[in-house]
Amino acid sequence: NETDDEINNSTSLPATSPKPVKKKPIAKHELVFVDSKGLVKQSSPKHCQSVLNQLNQQRLSSQFCDVTLLIEGEVYKAHKSILAANSEYFRELFIEKGAVSSHEAVVD
Predict the structure, then answer these.
(1) What is the reported pLDDT for 16?
(2) Residue closest to 33 by CA, chosen among 42, 25, 24, 44
(3) In contact, 35 and 41? CB cutoff 8 Å
(4) Domain assignment present for 79
(5) Is residue 87, in this structure, part of any structural domain at all?
(6) Contacts of 70 by beta carbon, 8 Å cutoff, 6+ apart
(7) What is the C-alpha separation between 91 and 56, in angstroms, rounded?
(8) Which of 32, 52, 90, 97 has its CA 20 to 30 A from that of 79?
(9) 21-39 pLDDT tens trace
(10) Residue 58 in contact with residue 64, Cβ under 8 Å?
(11) What average pLDDT does range 2-20 have in this prediction?
């Protein structure tokens, strides 16, 4: 058994420098450059596909869905912003019916 004095007086090993931490590289498809007017300067198909996949996953799990469509007896949850961005009909409907702020829209 070593005494405290023997332990404290023992030769210590030289300190080693810590290994450098490797930073995870940012995938190119995660980068989008936007100019001062809000216009996309550079984009990647991988980024676009990734965004669409994430939005679809949110829809499938009913996350952030803010409108429910009843079409021929079938219920569909959706994102108003996606519908409005891709359809003049829905854009006008949501604005006319005040559905942008009321979270409710009735489609006949």
Answers:
(1) 58
(2) 42
(3) yes
(4) yes
(5) yes
(6) 76, 107
(7) 20
(8) 32
(9) 666 665 555 565 677 787 7
(10) yes
(11) 54
pLDDT at site 91: 92
Q: Which among 68, 70, 29 is positioned nearest to 52, based on CA atoms?
A: 29
- Residue 38 has what pLDDT? 74
Side chain identity, residue 86: N
Supply the pLDDT for residue 10: 47
Per-position DSSP letters for 1-32, written without gaps between them: ---HHHHHHSPPPPPPPPPPPPPPPPPGGG--
For residue 32, report the phi and psi dihedrals to the nearest 5 degrees.
Answer: -135, 130
HEC string for 24-78: CCCCHHHCCEECCCCCEEECCHHHHHHHHHHHHHHHHCCCCCCEEEEECCEEEEE
Residue 73 belongs to domain spanning: 65-99
In a domain, 93, yes or no: yes
Number of domains in the chain: 1
Average pLDDT, integer, range 65-80 = 90
